[in-house]
Design brief:
This is Integrator complex subunit 2. This protein is mainly α. It contains 65 helices and 2 strands.
């Protein structure tokens, strides 16, 4: 350590210089002579500056400060500048006191100017004042005065009391003079405590003078023990890289660790800024690096960690500075790249050196570079070379920059010239077999890999060490990416390699959160299957093996396997009609039912709060919605939210219920291995459910016990619980709490196994008349359980052949299907099983749904479930037929493309015979409209719906119904008006439906609730498919339902779009064309055989309304026109708006006139007249005039009663208040 540095360290530590008189105290004389007398330190007499310092020691600095203050006041008054020249001459010839006063005056002036600049913060003013300051600072910048100035400044700082000068402000001001380093160092040497603040001041980002580097260098020589601290501040602030390198080489001597640290992160500060690194500064560093690498090459046991560190520094410097290597340096570089053994940790660093110096290394030895790349490719669990090949092949050069930056932990841009040269080599260097093998071997020890351990071809490689879980997960992710890309570019197809087993293993090894590269892998794999003979799909047997029991809890592997099947089916649908239909083969829908797609969907949405499968959730939902649209209905989604909300409430159950659940769960676990005893041990609970009318509370507890079982247990017992509950719950005596408990149970099962549950429910609700003759009733204590030939869930029937022939035939179980074990006393039920309709059969023929027990239509809770199933079947049916139509069209187009030379005449014939999209749409519309007509039949009042009113004497008065229709429309205080109206009605004018609101038709509450459910379903259906509202009203239905439909269906207003067309249409065309022109539905209520169709009402109208005077065709036409008139009038009554008024004037009133003449004053015409008058009271006179003009002599009685009824309606203020016109 130099003597001056030791002296500084001693003074800074507060030591006594007299104990070390041999040190160099020259820079510290002002400080020492201020603190001590010369007699106490005689060794200071050897310095020539001692006499000068002593002359300034005994000055009166208070007087000097006062004189400087007065001088500054005089300068403010005189701006000629004559004091400036006077002060300069005075310093040259004046006494020490005068010189000290001149220096203090000069620096005070400089500090004041700097203070004004700091306040104004104006760059233009700063530059102007800096230029003006050069002239007055000539005194401080003069080299002649520099030696004495280095003594005066410290003395002023040390001796002045309450100085106007702060040392850091002085340092900032001194940076404006020429070569201020000597003066700054003199100040710091005599004020040791100001070293760190001075360094921070010098590192101010705003330094227009660029004087910090020489000052800091001299300060580090003055206090070399502070050099490490100064260099660290340079690195932290990313300033003065040349100074940092110089301090490292001359003082710190830790080139490797320092370069490794400063290249971390964003090293561009080394080459940018006001003082960038030069090649001269790096020359010594480069020499040191290659010398160290050469030492490692010649060592018997090289330090591979040190080699990696040196290679990282070398790669970063070459890429950052674009350095040119000498031949000797290139040789050392190639020797290091060829050095073994190879390890995954060294492969990335070596590849980065290849990338940074690619052009130089290729010019020096192309063959050796190729050999190095082959060795790096064959290194186990090292995908770096494979990733580079992928990036080069796809032209993703920015990804290569990111790869190098990640490996080196620094942001760099690889030189593009060398990158292009290296890319040209990559295109032909590796074979397809080598690329495929490398990709499949990543993280897999069971795949053969060239040179993975031991000695191979004279080269030593490291043994394969098992990687950690985190590293294995990363390797699987990289492998997914690499294999997916190689599948896209047909590497495996050209090399004849099948990746089926590898993909299946990746699925089974998947963890959560799910790897983002898994979805591209599955998509690329399914796409490759469709066009490659070598790549096969996962067999259904392997899928069934993974889903040995779908009732068990799901895993990420199972969810991914379902996603793969959905992707495969999506690709197959997109490739319909391709040349090879064998490869484009979908997984059967029964297989997806077997794995319970709805349960998997909920698992993907809810597992770990949706975080685990966040990357695949949107695609999963899209695919399920495209292939199973029936699973996405509003009712089910709302039920799911309700079940999740009430989960906490269900947990807090009464003690008795908890005991029952615990007993049931314990019993289930004890007999789980003995499936033959399932029916036996559950028999007590089935007895309780079957006797729910007698013991409703016990039945509710049994349902709650079932709900609290695990998901696997609930699924395995779903069949028994459904068949134990239905159809017994159709009994009108069933308690509402039992019905609600069953519905909650049904909703829970519907979340996870909807397809199976829908089939179970319809099977249990089938009418007894549709089954073979039943044997004698079983003993009362034996609860029936489903047999092996009744309903079998999809996951149990999957291995059985599908039913053939007529869809209505029961499903016959194959002999290799294991039957459900039953109690011996229940075996007699198997002899007469009801026909089973699976969900697939219901989708193919939705009309089969209406073969259920007629009591379903009068059991609101069960009817809601029926409507939910019906909506799903309608959606599924449209999807099923549309999908098969697209498949047939694609096959036809493919056949035509393969036979382009067929005759034009034959092609025209085939085109005319072709089933078109319009035909399919018409068929689907016809099917759905027929289903809607069946629903409306259910809503018709049956005799028992009216008779039950008389058998309910205990009902509250608010629920009673009057026998006369008009009594419900008037208040009790209008007795006289009511009597007159009733007397008119008793003479036969109008019907109940004409004058009674829809909610007061004299039907019981059950039918009202059934209608509410039906009309809500139709409301949503009319919104989703507006064409249905048009078709159903052109087909027609019972006129008794018109008031209820118009008031109950909220979306009925869409009918205004086609109402004029309905009023002027001629249904004879539809009859002639083979359509169903029945405008009304009468006859037996729904619940019978639905295949009989909708009964025609044309003959009825012809006989009752027209007295049989018209033929069948004329009766149908007249009935349709009467229906349209009656419907239009009721619609106008609900919506008395300006738009409907215009329709009334233009279409309805003319139709009323026509039908009054043609039908002979039929009751529908009179009802319509009264309804129109109530809708638009101001048109009542016009309506009466139309009736008078069209009436004959025989119609006078009906005319008189109708006119009186209309006039009575007009006397009611409520009629006028209701109308907005």
């Amino acid at each position: 350590m130099p003597a001056v540095a030791e002296a500084y360290r001693l003074i800074e530590a507060g030591g006594d210089p007299r104990q070390s008189p041999a040190l160099d105290y020259g820079p510290f004389l002002p400080l020492l002579l201020t603190r001590h007398r010369l007699e106490t330190m005689p060794f200071l007499i050897r310095y020539a500056q001692t006499a000068t310092v002593l002359r300034y020691t005994d000055l009166d600095y208070r007087l000097i400060q006062r004189q400087v203050k007065e001088q500054l006041q005089m300068e403010k008054q005189d701006t000629s500048g004559r004091y400036l020249g006077h002060m300069t001459r005075l310093f040259e010839v004046g006494s020490p006191e005068e010189r000290a006063r001149v220096v203090l005056l000069e620096i005070t002036r400089m500090l004041q100017e700097d203070a004004r600049d700091a306040e104004e913060r104006n760059a233009i003013v700063d530059q102007k004042r800096q230029q003006q300051r050069l002239q007055p600072s000539f005194l401080l910048s003069s080299p002649i005065c520099r030696q004495e100035m280095a003594i005066i400044l410290p003395m002023l700082v040390l001796r002045c009391r309450h100085p106007a000068v702060h040392i850091q402000n002085l340092v900032r001001s001194l940076r404006s003079i020429r070569e201020p380093s000597q003066l700054v160092v003199a100040l710091v040497a005599n004020c040791p405590s100001e070293f760190s603040p001075t360094v921070d001041s010098l590192l101010d980002p705003f330094d227009p003078y660029l004087t910090a580097r020489p000052i800091l260098l001299r300060l580090c020589k003055l206090a070399d023990h502070r050099t490490w601290n100064v260099r660290q501040r340079l690195v932290d602030r990313k300033q003065l890289p040349n100074l940092a390198l110089e301090l490292t080489i001359e003082h710190c001597h830790d080139e490797t660790s320092f370069m490794n640290r400063i290249l971390q992160g964003q090293p561009e500060w080394l080459t940018s800024g006001p003082d960038p690194v030069t090649r001269t500064s790096l020359a010594s560093i480069m020499e040191f690096l290659f010398s160290s690498l050469n030492d490692e090459l010649t060592a018997k046991q090289p330090d591979h960690v040190a080699v990696n560190r040196l290679l990282r520094i070398l790669s970063g410097m070459i890429g950052l500075m674009n350095l040119t290597l000498s031949s000797e340096q290139l040789e050392i570089s190639l020797l290091v790249l060829e050095m073994g053994p190879l390890e995954p940790s060294t492969v990335g660093i070596k590849i980065c050196l290849l990338l940074m110096a690619a052009s130089q290394l290729l010019k020096y030895g192309t063959v050796r570079v190729e050999r190095v790349l082959h060795r790096l490719m064959n290194c186990p669990d090292s995908p770096q070379v494979l990733l580079l090949h992928i990036f080069f092949q796809s032209g993703q050069l920015l990804r290569i920059d990111d790869f190098a930056s990640k490996v080196l932990s620094m942001n760099l841009v690889i030189p593009r010239a060398g990158l292009m040269d290296l890319g040209a080599i990559f295109t032909s260097l590796f074979s397809n077999k080598e690329l495929g093998t490398c990709a499949l071997a990543l993280g897999r020890s069971n795949y053969a890999h060239t040179g993975n351990s031991g000695i191979k071809g004279g080269e030593i490689t490291s043994p394969r060490i098992p990687a950690s879980d985190r590293l294995q997960s990363e390797l699987r992710s990289v492998a997914n990416f690499c294999v997916s890309h190689l599948l896209k570019i047909d590497i495996f197809h050209r090399s004849g390699m099948d990746v089926r087993a590898w993909v299946m293993q990746q699925i089974q090894d998947a963890t959560v959160p799910l790897d983002t590269n898994m979805v591209p892998l599955l998509r690329a794999y399914t796409t490759a299957i469709s066009h490659s003979d070598h790549i096969t799909r996962i067999p259904e047997g392997d899928i069934r093996a993974l889903f040995r029991n779908p009732c068990e809890d799901l895993t990420p592997a199972k969810a991914l396997l379902v996603l793969y099947m959905l992707l495969n089916n999506d690709v197959c649908i997109a490739n319909l009609g391709s040349d090879n239909m064998e490869r484009n083969r979908e997984y059967d829908s029964a297989l997806l039912e077997y794995v319970q797609i709805r349960k998997v969907l909920l698992y993907v949405q809810n597992y770990q709060d949706g975080v685990a499968f966040r990357t695949v959730q949107p695609m999963f939902l899209k695919l399920v919605n495209a292939q199973f649209p029936e699973l996405f209905d509003v009712t089910t989604l709302l039920m799911e939210e309700g079940l999740s909300t009430t989960a906490a409430t269900t947990a807090a159950s009464p003690p008795g219920q908890i005991a029952l659940v615990s007993s049931l769960a314990a019993t289930l676990k004890s007999v789980r291995a003995r499936s033959s005893g399932v029916a036996l041990f559950l028999e007590s609970h089935y007895h309780t459910i079957s006797r729910h009318i007698e013991y409703p509370e016990a039945a509710v507890k049994a349902y709650h016990a079932f709900q609290r079982l695990s998901q696997e247990e609930k699924q395995s017992l779903a069949q028994q619980i459904i068949h134990a509950s239905l159809p017994s719950l159709l009994d009108p005596k069933s308690h509402p709490t039992v019905m609600e408990a069953f519905k909650n149970t049904w909703d829970q099962l519907n979340r996870v196994m909807p397809h199976d549950l829908w089939g179970m429910t319809i099977h249990a609700l089938l009418a007894q008349s549709s089954a073979p003759t039943q044997p004698a009733a079983p003993p009362p204590m034996k609860i029936p359980t489903p047999s092996a030939k009744t309903f079998v869930p999809a996951w149990k029937r999957f291995s059985s052949p599908s039913p053939t022939g007529n869809n209505s035939q029961p499903f016959v179980q194959s002999q290799n299907q294991r039957p459900l074990h039953q109690h011996p006393g229940l075996q007699h039920q198997n002899r007469s099983a009801k026909p089973l309709y699976t969900f697939d059969q219901l989708v193919q023929d939705p009309l089969l749904l209406f073969k259920v027990d007629p009591r379903v239509g009068r059991t609101p809770t069960i009817f809601r479930l029926f409507i939910q199933i019906l909506g799903a079947v309608m959606v599924g049916s449209r999807h099923y037929f549309r999908k098969h139509f697209q498949a047939s069209q694609a096959i036809l187009q493919s056949h035509q493309s393969r036979n382009p030379f067929q005759s034009h005449h034959h092609h025209s014939i085939q085109k005319n015979r072709q089933f078109k999209d319009a035909n399919l749409t018409a068929l689907l519309h016809t099917q759905d409209v027929t289903l809607i007509q069946f629903l409306l039949e259910i809503c018709q009042a049956r005799p028992e719906d009216l008779e039950q009113l008389e058998s309910e004497p205990m009902m509250p008065s608010s629920h009673r119904r009057l026998s006369k229709d008009s009594g419900d429309r008037l208040a009790e205080d209008r007795g006289s008006l009511a009597d007159r109206r009733n007397s008119i009605l008793s003479q036969g004018v109008g019907s109940a439906s004409a004058i009674t609101p829809a909610d007061k038709e004299g039907v019981n509450e059950v039918l009202k609730e059934i209608r509410v459910v039906t009309f809500n379903f139709l409301h949503q259906l009319f919104i989703d498919h507006t064409i249905y509202s048009k078709l159903i009203h052109f087909e027609g239905y019972s006129m008794d339902l018109i008031p209820s439909v118009v008031s109950g269906v909220d979306s009925i207003h869409v009918c205004f779009d086609f109402l004029p067309e309905l009023l002027i249409s001629n249904p004879v065309v539809a009859v002639a064309g083979g359509g169903n022109a029945t405008p009304m539905v009468s006859g037996p209520a729904a619940g019978g055989d639905a295949t009989s169709g909708v009964s025609s009402a044309a003959a009825t109208i012809a006989s009752t309304v027209l007295g049989g005077g018209l033929d069948s065709l004329g009766a149908s036409e007249t009935a349709a026109q009467l229906f349209s008139l009656r419907f239009a009038a009721q619609l106008c009554e609900r919506y008395p708006l300006p738009h409907t008024l215009k329709i009334t004037m233009d279409y309805i009133l003319p139709r009323l006139r026509t039908m009054a003449i043609r039908s002979g004053f039929a009751k529908e015409v009179l009802e319509s007249a009264r309804v129109l008058a109530r809708a638009f009271p101001h048109l009542s006179s016009d309506i009466i005039q139309i009736l008078q003009e069209t009436s004959g002599l025989k119609d006078q009685a009906e005319l008189q009663r109708t006119v009186e009824a209309i006039e009575l309606d007009m006397e009611d203020a409520a009629v006028w208040d209701k109308s907005v016109l």
